Structure formats: C-alpha cells, structure tokens
Amino acid sequence: MPNWKNSADILRLMVKAFGPGLAGLVACFLVSNHAMAENIKIGMTKLTAASPFYIAQEKGYFTAEGLTAELVFIDTAQTIAVAVVGGDLDFGGAGPSAAFFNMGGRGGLRIIAGQTHEMPGFPSIAYIVSNQAYAGGLKTLKDFAGHSVAVTQIGSTYDYAIGLLAEKYHFDINGIRFLALQTQPNIVSALAGGQADGAALAGTLARPLDQRGDAKIIGWAGEATPYQASQVYTTAKIADGKHDMVERFLRAYRHATRTFHDAFIGQDERRKDGPTAPEMLAIISKYNGLSVDQVKEIIPYIDAEGRLDEKNVTHQIKWFTSRNMIKGAIDANEMIDKRYAVALP
Questions:
Q1: Residue 99 and residue 320: Cα distance in Å, rounded?
Q2: Neighbours of 331 (CB within 10 A)
Q3: Residues 315, 292: Cα–Cα separation, whole Å
Q4: From first to last of its 345 residues, what are the pLDDT tens digits of the chain?
Q5: What is the rounded distance in angstroms from the CA atom of residue 306 to the CA atom of residue 253?
Q6: Three-state secondary structure readout of 178-228
Q7: How far, in Å, are 111, 122, 280 from residue 296 at the CA level?
Q8: Helices (H), the chain
Q9: Alpha carbons 302 and 222: distance in angstroms, whole number
Q10: How far apart are the first and last CA of the chain?
Q11: Whole-prediction pTM value?
C-alpha cells in the first residue's frame, strides 16, 4: 500500500490514473513532510543518449516523484561536468572525459547510474571520415593511424573512443593529430570541408552528414569498441546531503530507462521495436530536432535498470591517466556511489 503521507506516492498514482498534466496541477497544492515539488536542473547534450530524461519529463515521471525538472542542453560533456561541480546543475548525464574524472576524483562528483552503452546493433557513436580522407585511403577503422581527428576538447569522450580503436588495432595514438574544435557543429563543418580527416561523432549528427554525402561513416563504436558511453552523476554534496531527492530522481530516471528499453529492446537485448516505440520516437524527435525516421536509425542501447559498467569506468580512468590527462591516482570505487549505482553483472 502507498504511504499517503508522502506526496511522491500520491503523485505517482495520479500520473498513472490521470496523466502528467493533471498530476502537475495537483502537485501545486500538495503539502507533505517533503514540502512542495522540488526544483532540479539536469545537464545533457541534445542527443539520443539523453532519451531517458526526455521520457521522464514528457511522461510525468519526475512530477510523480515530487520533482520539477529543468532540462538544460549543453554542447560538451566537459562543460556539463563543470556546471554540476559549480552548482549550476544538480545532475549531469554525459560521456566520460578527463575533466569529469579530474573533478570527480578530487571528491567533487559521484556516478549514480549508467546511461548509454555502445553495443552491437545500436548505431549510437559513429566513426566518420571526410570525403577527401576517404579518397586518400582512410577507409577502415585501422586506417585512422596518422590522421587528424576532430574532437570538441582535448580529453573528451571522443578522444577515448579513438583511443579504443588504437588499442584494438594496435596503432600508436601519438600519431593522431587531435583538433580541439570546441563544439560538435564545428566538427561537422570541419569534416564536410575536409579540415579534419575523421572523428568519433554522435549518430545524431553523423547520420545526416553521411546521408547528405558530406562525409562517410566507416564504422560504429557499438560494433568495433563497445563501452559505457555515458553515465549519470551528481555532486558529492548532493549525494550525501539530499539522499531522498537523489532516490526520487533515480526512481523517475529508472522508470524512464525501463520505458525506453521496453520500446526498443527485446528480451534477448537486441533491437526490437515494441508497441510503444512510435510514442517514444515522437518524444525523442521533439527534443533532438530530428525527424522520427532519423531518430529511428540511431537508437542507442540503454539498460532497463540504468545499470553501470563499473569495469569499463575503471578502464576509462586508466586510459585518461595514461595520456597524462588525469593528475594523480583516482579510484573508480571512490567515484561510483554504490548507495545509488547498480552494477552490470
């Protein structure tokens, strides 16, 4: 039975019965020992990786937990981490970066859930090359050696994706010339204009670039280099001091990851669109600014329970440290808050 003294329980039932609109109105009048709806800010990039946040917002899952969520779109993972540490955001959902681990490893951030995983059959992050580089011989993933690669900032999640290629195909990553172009639209322009030979780029941007004939996708991270591509985090201060709020946020988030999983992933964990896929595609399309058909081609893999690949997080830290992008020793077990995060088997 629900605890009728808890507004979150009441709101969850009202959203189920009447939808998020009415529940949101009623939330304004509910008073409990958790007070009125609590405002939170969540930082994310405008990519399909953030789909659980879009779904939780549109389906009223945040409202049902007594939370009023503001979705804040930021272009780079590093900037999201800085904004969370600085207190401008309460939560972040983004890929691994050196800045994230440097701040988190100094006690600033705590990982509380997994987000997207690069997995076979889910074209999320593309390895893409310019037409000029392709014509010059950069036609397979092992051919990245010795070329220029566009990234947002040095130490970004896309550096790590290229690093995984170097590990797999045994080429010297020091031969790669990384071009820090600050924003993903700048990477798109550099590829289309031939100023960069290649990049690891979100499918949200890579697919249209390839379809227009402005560049060529030559592989996908999910097929070549599976890894934990993004995670959800907050500050140590919030994790320690606002346990109830974090738990409510995670209930809404995991409700959304289950909704996403049920819509796009079958029981064998392979891509299989279910009856709710059209509704979810419409929600994701609304926030990404892409057509439903474009979104359908770049659905990422998201675990139903938002679980975290802890082993890969450890590898990420080791890789950034080996590139001298992380200063000092950082223990993944200290960054992963196991009061909240659930590990993949």
A1: 10
A2: 10
A3: 35
A4: 344 334 455 555 555 665 655 555 454 444 343 446 899 999 999 989 999 999 999 999 999 999 999 999 998 888 999 999 999 999 999 998 998 999 888 788 999 999 999 999 999 999 999 999 999 999 999 999 999 999 998 999 899 999 999 999 999 999 999 999 988 899 999 999 999 999 999 998 999 999 999 999 999 999 999 999 999 999 999 999 999 999 999 999 999 999 999 999 999 999 999 999 999 999 999 998 889 999 999 999 999 999 999 999 999 999 999 999 998 889 998 899 999 999 998
A5: 8
A6: EEECCCHHHHHHHHHHCCCCEEEEEHHHHHHHHHCCCEEEEEEHHHHCCEE
A7: 29, 10, 10
A8: 7-18, 20-27, 51-58, 61-64, 77-85, 98-105, 131-135, 157-169, 184-193, 203-211, 221-224, 236-241, 243-264, 277-288, 292-296, 310-322, 332-335
A9: 12
A10: 31
A11: 0.86
State both tokens at 44: 């994310």
Same domain as 208, residue 285: no
CA angle 208, 210, 214 (to 5 degrees): 100
Q: How far apart are CA 199 and CA 130, in angstroms?
A: 9
What CATH number should be reported for the domain holding residue 200? Answer: 3.40.190.10
Range of the domain at 271: 37-119+228-335
Distance CA 44, CA 47 (A): 8
**The tokens 């080996």 sit on which residue?**
322
Task: Clarify whether residues 278 and 134 are in a common domain.
Answer: no
Residue 8 belongs to some domain of the structure: no
Same domain, residue pair 218 and 131: yes
Burial per residue of 81-93, b for 16 or more beta-carbon CB atoms within 10 angstroms, e otherwise: bbbbbeeebbbbb
Residues 221 and 234 reside in one and the same domain: no
Nearest to 173 by CA among 148, 203, 193: 148
Please tell me the total number of residues recorded for the chain in this structure: 345
